[in-house]
Sequence to fold (166 residues):
Amino acid sequence: MPTPERAVPSSATPPAAPGRQIVPLLLLCLAPPVGHDEAGAEFGLLDKAGRLHAGERQPDGALHYAFDLEIIGHDRDAQPRWRGVFLHGTAATPFRYLGWRPLDAGGPVWLRRLKIPLTTITRAQIDAVATGSGALTATISGEGSGTVPLLGKGWIASGTSHAQPH
Fold:
C-alpha cells in the first residue's frame, strides 16, 4: 500500500507520453466520517482496482490526499480528458471517489462514498501548475455522501509543492 503522504509516489508516476501531461492534485477532506479510522473499517481514495489509499492525517483531523492524473490530447478548446488509476466516470463527467467500508465486507459494500467532480477544472488552472511547481487543490467535507460540493473556490491552482501536505 502506498505511504500515507501520497496516494501515488512521484517515483511511481511515469513520465507523460508525448501529447499528454501529468497534473498533480491535492484533496483535503475536512471532517472525515466519524469512526472511519476505527478497527474493522477503512476510508481513503478509491483506485480503479477497488483498493482504498489512506490519506495523511492533519493536526486538525482532516485528511490530505496527493495524487497525479494525466491529461490526454492537445485540444485546448475542449474539456480536459483525464486518465489515471484514481479516475472514475466518463470522459464528459470525470470524478474521483473517497470511500468508507468495513474491512470484512467481502465485496463492494460501502458505508459511504464521496464523489468529487473534476469537471470544473479549466485549462488555465492546468497551465498554472504545468511547470511542476504547484498543484490543483480542492477541499471537501467528509460529512456528506454522493456527489459532494467543493468548498471555497473549488479547484484552485496552488503554489504548494506536490510532495508537501496542504
About this structure: Residues 10-158 form one domain. The first strand starts at residue 20 and ends at 30. The chain has one domain: 10-158. Residues 1-6, 8-13, 161-166 have pLDDT under 50 and may be disordered.
